[in-house]
């Protein structure tokens, strides 16, 4: 099946090379303007902090909360990077890693406030409200996990089978891993923006939908930032814009899911809890956000 999909994409790119290039350029612009400035500095700092020698939390729940504070506020896929690092180091079990990957998954606070709030809505307060709703739900999940662990303590993690390597300085290691993550993010954003652009054009040709409407139907499935920008271009100033923004931020898109899958696979972390949490966010976050926004406005 994957072979058929790949050959279909190759054929589409060959038939529409100009459109594929346009989509790739769109992805590069989104990454360089909306993602890189908000993601990279925080990613380096959190990875540096994780590697600094220090006193480990006395309780397992303390490790959970430290991981959440370092990972969840850094944006996609900082939470997955932070959790995977601790699973590989033997500080978390793979089951704990799976649960925390699902919980420590949220848009960057700087992305929500700066890009979504200031740039798309013209009000930083909208970004703050979105951040409160998303993290509020995640924190409920984290409280449930902490309470369950307190009542039914987890077994100590088994030693990892991944071969060890000589560690460099914490800053050097954080820069190295952050650069690898940034390359992964950039690659998926550019690729899925190109795929989304070609797919939107194909949909507009095969259906009565206009090009922009077809883009709105396709982009959120492939690349979140492109979906956010398209929703703003089409529905800015309407209530539907806010609802679609909350839904797109909850869906994330294939680009982000692939980033998380690649990162967690290196640590052997299963993805079923991650998928369940994303579904919960799609069901709960948009209506709660719209309800609070109606009182906020």
Q: Report the sheet with the most strands, covering strand number, pairing sense and barrel closure.
A: none
Q: Secondary-structure element order, as H and E?
A: HHHHHHHHHHHHH
Shape: globular
DSSP E strands, number? 0
How large is the share of residues in beta strands? under 5%
Termini Cα gap: 48 Å
Individual helix count: 13
Structural class determined from secondary elements: mainly alpha
| Spatial extent as radius of gyration | 20 Å
- Multimeric state: single chain
Low-confidence stretches: 159-165
Count of folded domains: 1
Q: Taking all residues together, what is the mean pLDDT?
A: 85
Helix content: over 70%
Short description:
By secondary structure, the chain is an all-alpha fold. The protein has helices at residues 2-15, 17-51, 60-71, 78-88, 94-103, 109-121, 124-151, 170-206, 211-222, 224-235, 239-251, 254-265, 272-296.
Give structural notes:
The chain has helices spanning 2-15, 17-51, 60-71, 78-88, 94-103, 109-121, 124-151, 170-206, 211-222, 224-235, 239-251, 254-265, 272-296. The model is unreliable at 159-165 (pLDDT under 50). It is mostly helical. The protein starts with a helix and ends with a helix. The chain has one domain (19-155, 168-296).
């Amino acid at each position: 099946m994957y072979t058929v999909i790949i050959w279909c994409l190759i054929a589409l790119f060959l038939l529409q090379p100009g459109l594929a290039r346009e989509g790739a350029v769109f992805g590069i612009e989104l990454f360089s303007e909306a993602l890189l400035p908000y993601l990279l500095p925080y990613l380096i700092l959190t990875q540096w902090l994780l590697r600094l020698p220090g006193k480990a939390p006395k309780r397992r729940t303390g490790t959970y909360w430290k991981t959440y504070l370092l990972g969840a506020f850094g944006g996609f896929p900082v939470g997955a990077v932070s959790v995977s690092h601790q699973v590989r180091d033997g500080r978390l079990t793979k089951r704990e890693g799976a649960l925390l990957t699902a919980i420590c998954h949220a848009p960057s606070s700087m992305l929500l406030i700066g890009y979504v709030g200031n740039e798309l809505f013209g009000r930083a307060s909208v970004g703050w409200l979105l951040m409160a709703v998303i993290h509020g739900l995640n924190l409920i999940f984290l409280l449930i996990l902490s309470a369950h662990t307190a009542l039914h303590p987890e077994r100590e993690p088994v030693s990892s089978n991944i071969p060890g390597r000589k560690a460099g300085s914490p800053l050097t290691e954080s820069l190295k891993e952050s650069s690898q993550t940034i390359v992964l993010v950039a690659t998926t954003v550019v690729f899925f923006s190109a795929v989304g652009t070609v797919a939107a054009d194909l949909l507009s040709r095969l259906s009565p939908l206009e090009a922009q409407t077809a883009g709105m139907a396709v982009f959120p499935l492939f690349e979140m930032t492109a979906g956010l920008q398209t929703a703003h271009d089409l529905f800015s100033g309407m209530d539907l814009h806010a609802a679609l923004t909350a839904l797109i931020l909850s869906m994330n898109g294939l680009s982000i899911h692939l980033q998380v899958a690649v990162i967690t696979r290196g640590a052997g972390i299963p993805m079923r809890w991650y998928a369940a949490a994303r579904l919960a966010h799609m069901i709960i976050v948009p209506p709660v956000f719209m309800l609070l926004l109606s009182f906020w406005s």
